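Action item from last meeting closed. Structure (71 res):
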């Protein structure tokens, strides 16, 4: 089953640590967001393969925006 990973708040994308095709396990950091000078890791909640990364460094995400999909 695919897991759609969404932003939980307004933030800027500080770094992207995973690429499409990467195998991930639960707890792997996919992206790091920055909000109010705090870094917020975005973690895989299931094991699988990253099928989509929807953000790039410098992008601003809003609550509910898709960050990545893991299948």
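Sequence:
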């Amino acid at each position: 089953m695919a897991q759609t990973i969404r932003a939980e708040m307004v933030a800027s994308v500080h770094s992207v640590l995973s690429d499409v095709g990467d195998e991930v396990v639960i707890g792997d950091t996919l992206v790091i967001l920055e909000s109010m000078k705090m870094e917020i890791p975005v973690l895989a909640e299931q094991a699988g393969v990253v099928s989509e990364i929807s953000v790039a460094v410098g992008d601003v995400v809003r609550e509910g925006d898709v960050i990545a999909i893991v299948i």
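Note appended to the action item: The chain has a mean pLDDT of 97.
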